[in-house]
């Protein structure tokens, strides 16, 4: 039976932007050209999510594991992040986007850390799209840093171990205060989580696109939203328990 596709928008969209290197190789270009071309769909997704009043958009720009790439590629990516921030931050601010970085920022260059702090400070009071950029981020690292924070509070006597419930734990994660990721998109044809939001994507609907990230366009984003709208989200319940036609239900 075909399910009607209601025009329901996920509150939190997370994207693994994969395929830049292959996109560049197919054109005989350096991998860095693929990363640069990847900025266009980043802008498009920010605009579209703003237009559709999505609450939060989280982009996986650089994983804890990406440090294993050749030094030249890492250097060119870090340079691109600094340039992109310098160029885009005024417009993001004008569009009321609130930017936040998630990841182990101590591993980033002092120059990039300064740009990150400035971007967060400048846009911190904005009431529009919540944009998270994951840099030097890993889902396991995120869970570990939360566990360490809580362990320290327990050791100091400020927190009882029994008081650590899901809510308390989530409040120590990098995405504290944001709704869970409801739609996780990965481009580039791979169907893996690759250590992205391990906790926050527990109930996310997964949309895998064969498009290489620089080719990800509005039509493909719309296809991902339509896919999300067509899902019956059960959160462990049976479909009979879930209200008939309650596709796109909210994360509890
Ligand atoms: C993965 O493709 C992509 C990356 C590691 C970098 C993604 C970064 C951008 C698109 C720039 C975004 C910038 C900001 C500030 C948000 P890949 O290189 O693994 O591609 P491949 O699988 O084809 O080799």
Please give a structural write-up.
This protein is an alpha/beta fold and 252 residues long. The protein has a single domain, classed as Undecaprenyl pyrophosphate synthetase. 39% of the residues lie in helices and 13% in strands. Strands 3-4-2-1-5-6 form a six-stranded parallel sheet, sandwiched between helices. Strand 3, helix 5 and strand 4 form a beta-alpha-beta unit. Helix 2 runs parallel beside helix 4. The protein is globular, with a radius of gyration of 19 Å. The two termini are 26 Å apart. Bound molecules: farnesyl diphosphate. Farnesyl diphosphate (FPP) binds next to helix 1, helix 3, strand 2 and helix 4. The site of farnesyl diphosphate has 20 residues, from helix 1, helix 3, strand 2 and helix 4.
Sum up the structure in keywords.
single chain; 252 residues; alpha/beta; Undecaprenyl pyrophosphate synthetase; six-stranded parallel β-sheet; binds farnesyl diphosphate
């Amino acid at each position: 039976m075909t399910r009607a596709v209601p025009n329901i928008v996920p509150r939190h969209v997370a994207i693994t932007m994969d395929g830049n290197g292959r996109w560049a190789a197919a054109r005989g270009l350096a991998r860095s050209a693929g990363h640069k071309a990847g900025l266009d769909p980043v802008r498009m997704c920010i605009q579209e999510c703003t237009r559709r009043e999505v609450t939060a958009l989280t982009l996986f720009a650089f994983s804890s594991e990406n440090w294993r790439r050749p030094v030249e590629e890492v250097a060119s990516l870090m340079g691109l992040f600094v340039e992109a921030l310098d160029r885009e931050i005024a417009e993001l601010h004008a569009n009321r986007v609130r930017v936040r970085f998630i990841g182990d920022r101590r591993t980033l260059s002092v120059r990039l850390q300064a740009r990150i702090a400035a971007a967060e400070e400048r846009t911190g009071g904005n009431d529009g799209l919540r944009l998270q950029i994951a840099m030097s981020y890993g889902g396991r690292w995120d869970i570990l840093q939360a566990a360490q924070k809580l362990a320290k509070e327990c050791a100091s006597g400020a927190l009882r171990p029994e008081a650590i419930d899901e809510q308390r734990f989530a409040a120590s994660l990098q995405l504290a205060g944001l709704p869970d990721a409801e739609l996780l998109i990965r481009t580039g044809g791979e169907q893996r989580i690759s250590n992205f939001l391990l906790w926050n994507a527990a109930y996310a609907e997964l949309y895998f696109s064969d498009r290489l990230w620089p080719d990800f366009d509005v039509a493909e984003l719309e296809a991902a939203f339509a896919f999300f709208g067509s899902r019956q989200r059960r959160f462990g319940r049976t479909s009979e328990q879930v209200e008939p036609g309650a596709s796109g239900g909210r994360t509890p």
